[in-house]
Amino acid sequence: KNHTDIEILPPSLHEAVLLFVLVRAIRITQGRGHLHCSMMVNVSRFNSVQENVMEKIWAYKGEVENEIRLKYKAPTGASRSKILSKLQELYQSEYKTPGSNNPDVSESELPEWNVIKDNLYEAIASIVVRIVNMKAKDRLDYDDERHKSTGLHVIAVGGLALSRGLTLEGLCISYVLRNPSAYDTLMQMGRWFGYRPHYENLCRLYIPSFAHDYYQYVTEAI
User: Could you give the CA distance from residue 6 to residue 54 in angstroms, rounded to a whole number?
Assistant: First the structure.
């Protein structure tokens, strides 16, 4: 609700942020690190909540970045760091293990963990966290000259503005708690999850079970 005081982020959102860092690292190893890469967080239509969530994500991103910077080069870094250990665990379970969540990708197509680990700091250092709503001072502009050679790597936090035709370039990780029950809204929001050339195997979607049922229902209706 409006002006809800959010003290901590749920573990699932922490996990989603870590997955986004992993996606960036994988893309770098593939020679695609200079392309746009986005994560969407759409949990409330209220600006006050969006700003609160954005601040918490920015703080968590800083915590993860500092941990990676200090320990990713150490031979025993992963074992001494909860965050690096979690990143390694997520990489293995979500991407590296054949047949689990990546049935169309063989293990040999993805690099070993040590290769990913060596690219983690570059992956997270360029990530920015942005508010996307009517009050936002900085517009989300993928065509900005500053991003032409390096790409924009962004965690976009918003509500209605994210639901109304805005294209998030290179969208990989989506965290959506909104309750879309109307057919037209479902179809519009469903366009977020369209074609993903060369990285469809990396995409992950976090939605409540009731939203999954809505999408299944409207798909059957169509």
Answer: 11
